[in-house]
């Protein structure tokens, strides 16, 4: 009955290899990379990658280099991953003129083109809601329509309200996150480290604006449609099982450029700028217009202002 | 001491020894687990898109089960208090099985959380620094990890220490550290369900969850469903094993459940009134739950079934005649478990998301993947509990005793074989 | 930054305003707060073949009647009831527009013409609130002109074809 030492060792070794094999198989199916040809060191570094805010500049560079290599292997195009920090003295703010919006969804799709969201399964960071004017019920969200189809926009008798991340000064989502994978940057942008998010989706339960979106499946996007100018905290290709959201086009705004939605809007209803600059259009808007912020009673203090420049849409 | 500890662990081999019925039961559970694993592999391969959860309803059946099971885990307190604080002997004899159920329930909770994660391999990010980046004390989820694991460790220590002592024919001293841990386990049990309720409270964008009565209601309902599940399991245990559980203990617990159910129904009334009567915009979720909106009535069947179950169960368990008759008592217990499972699960999580924060109604119904994975987790829980109980029973009945001294391990093996082959 | 620049421009232009004191004050007033020329979007290239107007109108005296003739008969004026061509078009210098004061304004500065009546919106446009801007939020940006979106003869913004509705959550499935 008694097993010899060698036999036992053999059994142990077998068991260990079996365990290893199982773990590797499990890892292969569950890891974000899903690359059979990934070198072990890359795998190791990716798995034990630090939180973005814990990295030194040198470490960030190294991670970015690895990510760029990874993306190139996956999408066969060169993708630049930027790590530009927040500019000092800048706090981003946004204005949306509800009296001008015509509900054409141009911003919604410009956002997708810029920010490399998954096409299948579909992820849109901007949701455009349509409200009926003169609705006997107060036009609350329950009476809004997101999936309207129309031959032409605007349709008579309706007004529209695009909603995206409100970049709260007091965000509910960052408080909820159990791993600090999402946080507010010094320039006020709420960002996510897609390599740190565990996909628990508590932030989605916490967000009052439906601004957070989850990669329910493997994100798919044709390589030729990928915007190669990306930012680590913004539009770089995402993994399955992580949350993503609007970042005020961090890859553009941190280089001084307007966001994609601002530039796309055919009616110029979207305004963007530095809240700390008293001469910015965004400050002029706050000072001179009737502005409101969504769900102000929740004290999330959004930096996204809705305003009325005009009596109403025609 | 070292030898004794070694013996104790060797005795664990007994869980693999049993009669044909025992093996049949294990095989049955293994099959269900296999189905669960198969479904989970599909989910791991393609992502959570295999579930019915979407951005609009971002938590579903898994978190529903998790919430219910936190209640089951917390419910051990209903045995711990009379057993240790009031020294009620009939309950003290069975409190061990309650603690083992709490351990099992927490393992199931963790399994349900793991199946719900988008990136399960990154779960270590939730550990405190320097390993992870635990967002404590700000994130309620971090709190939940803390209290659930704390309660788990407490119960493991208590249950195993008690078993260890029994196995060596000794008794534990309530005035020693274990007594302190036992007392500590009482607030810990309350804390796990409170923190879980706060987890929902904290998501202040969902008015359905922001009732301040949520936490008390969680506790009240947990003290119904958990002990109800235990009483059913105990009756099975005394039928298929030689463990003795007095009727007195069962009826005593049933009485306690009656109180809990009365409080639970009262809290429910308070919540429903407070949410319905004002008819503010925030009532929309509870309206969807109970009546549906514009013909979208997905949850209506669940909640009214739950209501019917709870009220019927309460009537049955309130009347001493039906409470102290096993046929009717068991009907009441089953109804109670079903009622609270529906109400604390689908009836709590889903209406929080429907309509969502932008007023959209996405009618969530779990997919086959979700149902099968959940079945697998429940089977795993049943298997774990079976093993725990299988190990505990011979110790509990006194059949397994390690004499202090130099008995050879083989000799003890024989004892174990002898013990375990007796029944089942 | 922008304000300083404007102040400098204004200062440079100041002597000019004295030179044309009574005649050109209106234009100067309108110009106030308008960002430097290079930020402004050129007018849309819609007038191929029609512009410069002088190719036909050279030497042609202004018509005596308020009537659209010849190749301009397709014009529908849904703007300024009672208005006519020479409210905005300069009858003497055909490749220019004119203000009510008679001052000549180049076609590239048509916003000055619009600004005479739509003062409030003109003001908002100068502040970047009305209309569209692209480029840098903290630097060089391009202002769209009034006529980039509002054709002066029919200024009402034309409805456009909207993009398709997003996919409903119930239709997002694996392998779709």
Per DSSP, the total helix count of chain A is 9
**Uncertain segments of chain B:** 405-411, 413-424
CATH superfamily annotation of chain B = Formate dehydrogenase/DMSO reductase domain
Topology pattern of chain A, helix = H, strand = E: HHHEEHEEHEEHEEEHHEHEE
Q: From the 3D coordinates, which CATH architecture of chain B would you assign?
A: Up-down Bundle
CA-atom Rg of chain B in angstroms? 22 Å
Largest sheet features of chain B: none
| Number of contiguous helices of chain B | 17
Please give the CATH architecture of the largest domain in chain A: 2-Layer Sandwich
Tally of separate domains of chain B: 1
What fold name stands as the CATH topology of chain B? Formate dehydrogenase/DMSO reductase fold
Instruction: Count all strands of chain B and give the number.
Output: 0
Quote the average pLDDT of chain A: 89
- The percentage helix of chain B is over 70%
Q: Which runs of chain A of at least 5 residues are low in confidence (pLDDT < 50)?
A: 9-13
Mean pLDDT across the residues of chain B is: 91
Q: What percent strand of chain A? A: 5-15%
Search tags:
heterotrimer, A: 314 residues, alpha+beta, Alpha-Beta Plaits, 2 domains, 4-stranded mixed beta sheet, two-stranded parallel sheet, 9 helices, 29% helix, 15% strand, B: 424 residues, mainly alpha, Formate dehydrogenase/DMSO reductase fold, 17 helices, 70% helix, 0% strand, disordered C terminus
């Amino acid at each position: 009955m008694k097993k010899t030492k060698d036999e036992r060792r053999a059994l142990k070794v077998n068991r260990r290899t079996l365990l290893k094999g199982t773990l590797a198989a499990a890892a292969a199916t569950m890891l974000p990379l899903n690359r059979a040809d990934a070198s072990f060191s890359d795998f190791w570094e990716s798995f034990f990658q630090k939180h973005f805010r814990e990295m030194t500049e040198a470490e960030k560079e190294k991670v970015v280099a690895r990510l760029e290599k990874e993306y190139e292997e996956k999408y066969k195009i060169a993708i630049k991953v930027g790590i530009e920090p927040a500019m000092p003295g800048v706090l981003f703010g946004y204005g949306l003129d509800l009296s001008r919006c015509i509900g054409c969804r141009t911003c919604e799709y410009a956002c997708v083109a810029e920010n490399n969201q998954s096409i299948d399964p579909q992820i849109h960071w901007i949701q455009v809601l349509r409200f009926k004017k003169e609705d006997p019920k107060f036009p609350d969200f329950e009476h809004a329509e997101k999936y309207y189809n129309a031959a032409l926009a605007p349709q008579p008798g309706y007004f529209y309200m695009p909603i995206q991340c409100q970049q709260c000064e007091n965000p509910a989502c960052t408080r909820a996150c159990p791993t600090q994978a999402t946080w507010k940057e010094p320039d006020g942008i709420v960002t996510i480290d897609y390599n740190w998010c565990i996909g628990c989706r508590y932030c989605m339960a916490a967000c009052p604006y439906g601004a957070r979106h989850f990669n329910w499946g493997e994100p798919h996007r044709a390589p030729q449609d990928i915007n190669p100018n990306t930012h680590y905290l913004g539009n770089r290709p995402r993994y399955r099982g992580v949350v993503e959201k609007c970042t005020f086009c961090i890859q553009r705004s941190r280089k001084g450029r307007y966001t994609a939605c601002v530039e796309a809007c055919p009616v110029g209803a979207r305004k963007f700028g530095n809240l700390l600059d008293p001469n910015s259009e965004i400050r002029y808007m706050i000072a001179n217009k009737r502005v409101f912020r969504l769900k102000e009673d929740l004290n999330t203090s959004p930096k996204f202002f809705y305003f009325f420049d005009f009596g109403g849409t025609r | 001491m070292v030898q004794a500890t070694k013996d104790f662990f060797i005795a664990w081999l007994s869980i693999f020894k049993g009669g044909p019925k025992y093996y049949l039961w294990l095989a049955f559970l293994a099959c269900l687990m296999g189905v669960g694993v198969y479904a989970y592999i599909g989910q791991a391969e393609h992502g959570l898109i295999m579930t019915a959860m979407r951005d609009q309803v971002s938590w579903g059946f898994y978190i529903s089960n998790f919430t219910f099971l936190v209640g089951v885990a917390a419910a051990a307190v209903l045995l711990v208090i009379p057993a240790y604080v009031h020294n009620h002997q009939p309950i003290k004899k069975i409190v061990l099985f309650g603690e083992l159920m709490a351990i099992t329930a927490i393992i199931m909770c963790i399994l349900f959380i793991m199946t719900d994660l988008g990136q399960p391999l990154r779960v270590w990010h939730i550990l405190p620094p320097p390993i992870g980046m635990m967002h404590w004390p700000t994130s309620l989820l971090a709190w939940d990890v803390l209290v659930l694991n704390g309660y788990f460790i407490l119960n493991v220590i208590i249950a195993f220490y008690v078993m260890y002592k029994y196995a060596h024919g000794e008794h534990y001293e309530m005035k020693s550290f274990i007594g302190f841990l036992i007392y500590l386990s009482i607030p810990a049990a309350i804390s796990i369900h409170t923190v879980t309720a706060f987890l929902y409270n904290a998501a202040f964008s969902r008015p359905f969850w922001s009732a301040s009565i949520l936490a008390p209601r969680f506790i009240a309902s947990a003290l119904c469903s958990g002990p109800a599940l235990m009483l059913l399991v105990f009756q099975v245990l005394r039928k298929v094993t030689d463990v003795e559980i007095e009727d007195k203990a069962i009826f005593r617990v049933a009485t306690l459940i009656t109180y809990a159910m009365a409080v639970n129904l009262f809290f429910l009334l308070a919540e429903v009134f407070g949410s319905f009567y004002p008819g503010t915009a925030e009532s929309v979720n509870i309206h969807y739950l109970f009546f549906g909106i514009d013909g979208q009535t997905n949850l209506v069947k669940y909640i009214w079934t739950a209501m019917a179950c709870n009220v019927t169960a309460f009537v049955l368990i309130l009347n001493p005649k039906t409470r102290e008759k096993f046929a009717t008592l068991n009907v009441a217990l089953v109804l109670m478990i079903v009622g609270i499972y529906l109400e604390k699960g689908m009836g709590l999580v889903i209406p929080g998301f429907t309509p969502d924060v932008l007023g959209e109604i996405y009618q969530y119904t779990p997919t086959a993947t979700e149902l099968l994975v959940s079945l697998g987790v429940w089977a795993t829980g049943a298997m774990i509990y079976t093993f725990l109980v299988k190990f505990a029973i011979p110790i509990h009945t006194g059949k397994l005793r390690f004499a202090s001294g130099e008995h050879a391990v083989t000799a003890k093996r024989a004892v174990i074989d002898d013990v375990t082959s007796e029944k089942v | 930054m922008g304000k300083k620049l404007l102040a400098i421009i204004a200062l440079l232009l100041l002597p000019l305003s004295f030179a044309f004191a009574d005649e050109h004050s209106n234009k100067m007033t309108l110009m106030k707060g308008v960002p430097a020329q290079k930020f402004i979007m050129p007018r849309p290239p819609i007038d191929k073949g029609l512009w410069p107007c002088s190719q036909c109108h050279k030497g042609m005296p202004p018509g005596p009647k308020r009537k659209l003739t010849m190749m301009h008969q397709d014009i529908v004026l849904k703007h300024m009831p009672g208005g006519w061509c020479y409210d905005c078009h300069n009858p003497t210098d055909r490749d220019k527009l004119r203000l009510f004061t008679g001052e000549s304004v180049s076609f590239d500065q048509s916003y000055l013409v619009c600004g005479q009546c739509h003062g409030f919106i003109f003001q908002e446009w100068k502040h970047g609130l009305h209309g569209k801007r692209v480029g840098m939020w903290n630097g060089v940006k391009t202002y769209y002109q009034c006529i980039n979106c509002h054709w002066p003869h029919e200024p009402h913004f034309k409805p456009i074809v909207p993009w398709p509705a997003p996919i409903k959550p119930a239709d997002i499935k694996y392998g779709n």
